[in-house]
């Protein structure tokens, strides 16, 4: 059964096979995607026709590698911009939320906390369409009643940012709150007694203490934004983010360039995930 | 004291703005939109027509029920696969490896869902990797299309949501005291009894929170049914997308969206009630 108990050989072996199969199931699609990014064939499929870097660097009219593919490069840039702004915004508001829920007492706190958790149980598609509808209503109102054209309320970059911000902030609140719970508040009191004001205390003491959690939450926010599909789908305008752009290409037939992009995404996200893991380990110390 | 109040409002205002402008008001708008439809003159008036359409048109509620049933199936399969895995990582494998195995477990889920679904497409399609090997080994003489059916759609849905089941299960298994199992074993309990009377009851909270998240994510999934499921496997989110983007009938789409929201909230509420848990505990 467990480590300390005797177990039959058959049990041990079949369990090991099961676990091996499970890990193959987990990694097979990713590994094969990466391998085929380097296959010297015009289709992302086997047989293996030799190693090539064409899908990254080629630009000879017949093959256009990722680094010469304007359309994909632009969507990567859009995604980076979006993720950067979303993670900054959600980090600021999420940290304020964490302070609010951990350190303040006020009426309706429970109700407000419940609302904060709501994005966790609202499907992304619904969040997307509801924000699309609301911003459309605002845009229409401004145009019809006040005669102001407000393209910012039409699907596009800023709407995507708002849509992603609306649920990623919840994750920031949860991550930062978890760390703030363990904070020793006597440190704050000591600083206050020594003449610091509330903001000096937060700036010099609490935020220093929260730093690992802030970095962790920031990288999670960046990844979530970078990868979001469901909410973004409804809010995207003429500048698609990378997942939306990839989706359109995959739907209409695929080329090994998609594998090259996937390979880079896998490398990039794994690195960010490991950084995040490193900081969350440090947090536990 | 005045400073403290000021601090409080500086924290409160952004949070309240976020929650009301981006969560509460859009959902109220969604509800209002869903309750309006065009009359014969092309004006928007209050009506229940959109909801009536849903119940009158069989394809709509058929898709709705299908989505719900398939999401439940996906949740159950995910739980059955994840239980032994979490048990192995926390209780069976040499403790030296258990940390490594759990990190390895998390890695694929950091990668975009689109990339993961795309990986399965390369594996499963007619010209795909699995067909390539089956042909090479002489098991098949001509390739089979593994994509575009319900079985592969369910498999990929299980794949995409596995993390949200495994992680809570690992954390409940960690808190299970080995002595309980040892004692049961010494007293002559069978493996079956140990599993059903000790391990499963102990794992119940993790199982519930995992199930809720997996169910919700599957219900609201768009990518996998769309790319793997093919033409005949309808998913309710696709209906919403069609109403919004293809038919440009936002009022109908809003009604569908609201129905999906009601369904997912109802099931999650039911799950929490039955297992006597609350949302803030589950997400911790």
UniProtKB/TrEMBL annotation, chain A:
- Topology relative to the membrane: Multi-pass membrane protein
Q: What is the lineage of its organism?
A: Bacteria, Pseudomonadati, Deferribacterota, Deferribacteres, Deferribacterales
Q: Which organism is it from?
A: Deferribacter desulfuricans (strain DSM 14783 / JCM 11476 / NBRC 101012 / SSM1)
The ABC transmembrane type-1 domain extends over 76-276
Stored InterPro entries? Bact_Polyamine_Transport, MetI-like, MetI-like_sf
Protein's UniProt name: Spermidine/putrescine ABC transporter, permease
Gene3D superfamilies, A to Z: MetI-like
Q: State where it is primarily located.
A: membrane
One GO biological process term is: transmembrane transport
| UniProt record similarity statement | Belongs to the binding-protein-dependent transport system permease family. CysTW subfamily.
What SUPFAM superfamilies has UniProt attached to this entry? Answer: MetI-like (SSF161098)
Where it sits in the cell: the answer is:
Cell membrane
GO CC annotations, alphabetized? plasma membrane
Q: Membrane spanning segments where?
A: 20-38, 76-100, 112-135, 155-176, 213-237, 257-279
Automatic annotation (TrEMBL), chain B:
Q: Which residues form the ABC transmembrane type-1 domain?
A: 64-271
What is the protein's membrane topology class? Answer: Multi-pass membrane protein
Record keywords, A-Z? Cell membrane, Membrane, Transmembrane, Transmembrane helix, Transport
UniProt-listed GO biological process terms: negative regulation of TOR signaling; transmembrane transport
Superkingdom, taxonomy of origin = Bacteria
Q: Does the keyword Transport apply?
A: yes
Signal peptide positions on this chain: none
InterPro entries given in the database record: MetI-like (IPR000515), MetI-like_sf (IPR035906), Tuberin (IPR003913)
Give the residue spans that cross the bilayer.
Answer: 7-28, 68-89, 101-123, 151-172, 206-224, 254-272
Name of the molecule in the record? Spermidine/putrescine ABC transporter, permease
Organism, by scientific name, is Deferribacter desulfuricans (strain DSM 14783 / JCM 11476 / NBRC 101012 / SSM1)
Taxonomic lineage of the native organism:
Bacteria, Pseudomonadati, Deferribacterota, Deferribacteres, Deferribacterales
